[in-house]
Specification:
This protein is α+β, with helices and mostly antiparallel strands. The chain folds into 3 domains: 51 residues, no CATH class; 111 residues, 60s Ribosomal Protein L30, Chain: A, CATH 3.30.1330.40; 91 residues, 60s Ribosomal Protein L30, Chain: A, CATH 3.30.1330.40. The chain is 26% helix and 27% strand. The chain starts with a strand and ends in a 13-residue tail after the last helix.
Length: 309
């Protein structure tokens, strides 16, 4: 039998003269009744030791700055967009979709594109709360505030790198940096710029299988025509299209991606989360880079790709 601790909780409520009180409200200790008609005591409360234990909540763990995954087993997925609910609801739905796509495998890294007005600082905490300890160690997280996504009212989209069960990249991987195609003429259509960027990325891959492709364009007004261009050129890859700025000052497009059978044959790859610094002087990026190298990726021998927003 659990130990029961009895505690008396008395709250005094002011009542004007002449107001009738119920029998339960008039019941109380003699000390309470001795205070007169202007105050009536409330009922007593019993608190058990078990209640005290259940009221203690453990804070969610913070995602790590760096997460490591086996190169030969890495798989890539993009969460489907949803326009229903708040940022927190869409984030949880996107995480459940990623776990369904990768078969419940351990997620090593998440890059989150947020286009809503919600507090993006909550996204890492939501990820830690949803994943917890059920799916292995927590992933590193990069949260990027962007201008727009391809679906109206969609506030978040997740790109995930997971460790699968099979060795599907025995010959290694190649991470291709983006090359931006900028229009010299303001009247140049965006579709032709995206086609140029897609062709440049395909030339870099040189016929190798594309695993993940992300394209950035200055405007998503014609997203329905732009998205099939990427998916048809890189079949089977996890593709994504994002507008990085709400209001662009020039027409541009760029594409980056990951392909199989590449030059990177290291046994493991380390993914770093986003690092934030405040300030507008040239010392700010230097301080951020030195701190990132010194504390986050010290065990890593080589930095493959770094992007600044």
């Amino acid at each position: 039998m659990s130990q029961i601790t009895r505690a008396t909780l008395t709250i005094y409520v002011y009542e004007p003269y002449g107001k009738r009180t119920s029998k339960q409200e008039r019941r109380g200790s003699s000390v309470c009744r001795g205070l007169g008609r202007r105050f009536s005591p409330c009922t007593e409360a019993i608190v058990t030791q078990q209640d005290k234990n259940t009221q203690t909540l453990n804070l969610p763990k913070d995602p790590p700055l760096v997460a490591v995954g086996e190169t030969s087993r890495l798989v890539f997925h993009v969460s489907p967009l949803s326009g229903q609910g708040l940022l927190s609801d869409q984030t949880r739905a996107a995480l459940r979709a990623i776990l369904k796509l990768n078969g419940g495998a351990q997620i090593v890294h998440i890059r989150a594109f947020s286009a809503g007005n919600g507090d993006v600082r909550r996204i890492p905490q939501i990820v830690a709360d949803v994943l917890g300890d059920k799916h292995g160690p927590l992933p590193s997280i990069s949260v990027l505030q962007v201008g727009a996504l391809t679906m109206h009212d969609a506030q978040i989209e997740l790109e995930a790198a997971s460790v699968g069960k099979k060795e599907v990249n025995k010959a290694g991987l190649t991470f291709h940096a983006a090359e931006t195609a900028v229009a010299t003429d303001p009247t140049t259509p965006l579709k032709s710029l995206l086609q140029k960027s897609v062709d440049q990325l395909a030339a870099k891959m040189n016929g190798k299988q594309a695993l993940s492709v992300t394209c950035f364009v200055s405007d998503l007004d014609d997203a329905a025509a732009l998205t099939p261009m990427i998916a048809s050129r890189f079949p089977g890859a996890a593709t994504n299209l994002v507008q990085p700025r709400r209001l662009a000052w020039q027409t541009e497009a760029s594409c980056e991606g990951v392909s199989r059978d590449g030059g990177l044959k290291a046994e493991r790859i380390a993914f770093s989360g986003s690092q934030v610094a405040f300030g507008d002087t040239e010392k700010t990026p230097r301080w951020l880079f030195n701190g990132w190298i010194g504390h986050s990726v010290t065990p890593v021998r080589r930095v493959l790709r770094m992007r600044t927003w």
